[in-house]
Amino acid sequence: xxxxxxxxxxxxxxxxxxxGARVTLVYDEWEAANRAIDPALIARVDRHYVxxxxxxxxxxxxxxxxxxxxxxxxxxxxxxxxxSQFSAAYLATLLGLPQPSIEKSVLxxxxxxxxxxxREAGIACARHVxxxxxxxxxxxxxxxxxxxxxxxxxxxxxxxxxxxxxxTEPEELAGILRAAGRETVAQFLxxxxxxxxxxxxxxxxxxxxxxxxxxxxxxLRPRMTVTTPGRDNGSILLPREREPELYAEVEELxxxxxxxxxxTDDITHLEIFRRADGRLWFSEIATxxxxxxxxxxxxxxxxxxxxxxxxxxMGAGAEPLSLRTPPYPYVGWINLAxxxxxxxxxxxxxxxxxxxxxxxxxxRSRPAGFEIGELHPSVWCLLLVLGADDEEQFRERAxxxxxxxxxxxxxxxxxx
Length: 416
Hints:
- Helices cover 32% and strands 26% of the residues.
- It is built from 14 helices and 19 strands.
- Strands 13-12-9-10-11-14-18-16 form an 8-stranded antiparallel beta sheet.
- Helix 8 (136-146) runs antiparallel to helix 9 (170-181).
């Protein structure tokens, strides 16, 4: 199978190559400078391209022509990140592939289009309005007249929880719009009514319209209430055998979402809420694997979620993938991170982490030497996968790890 892979990801790339895939790899200059690009893996791909930006259509067009000139017929395009979704669809179209389609990439990236499609399909989700930095006064008035305050404001085609704010006053919203207007990449934003209740994420692998893997996780706290990236920042993967009714509800909702968004052969990350009325409300969905240590949380069940996705791709999704019993009924992850920006001088050591036998995996996303410019919930630093006998014990163990390990961080200021 000939695959075009957009973005560097060591786990996914190695899994594809180990299973015999022929890979054309594309990643950008930022990744080349900031990711640990493995030359041994690069040597195994058929060809690779380093581009300025996944948002540059001229580069994507030239790339597609170059691939066609080699005579290689690409069977499938894989986008491994949020920021490569638009370009992956553009490349697929130029290479004669039906998926991912350009329309689908817009639905997956632009939150306004996503919410509109969900509401058209009768799926419960928050009311919203579109905001423009070119019309600050009109946008503020639209929010006041349609939604009222407070509202959640985020870039229309943003990433995770980055640049997402709970806005309580018109003046605050006007300031955000003016600031965004000074950035060439953020001309449109979305404002939506806040959703209360427990927040869940659902991570699944789909082939031929069937779920090969599907896991439901509860965030330790809703993402909008995470005030610092190193505390209460994680989720618990709920065992199906202990939550059969929840899984049945989620699968019924996911079927409706898949039909609305034409999801058949993808890896998906869905976010939903359980509101006070008991109903599940749609928040967002992405056709990519999740961030944090969500993929690694599937490791105790047999393999990283990215590896399970590759297994489904290369096996053509004939049968649902089998999982093994994890060492603990409840498995999940937390993120430990500094409480202030700067350069990481020291972080918790392997020896310190090793004192906690229920830690099952350690992922160092931003190790010592890394600079952190802005703190937000998706600043992934030290990610720990851990196990517990129940949810209460998981939360207790997460709190114990925070108390013991966060003081080990040492930071130095970065010169402006």
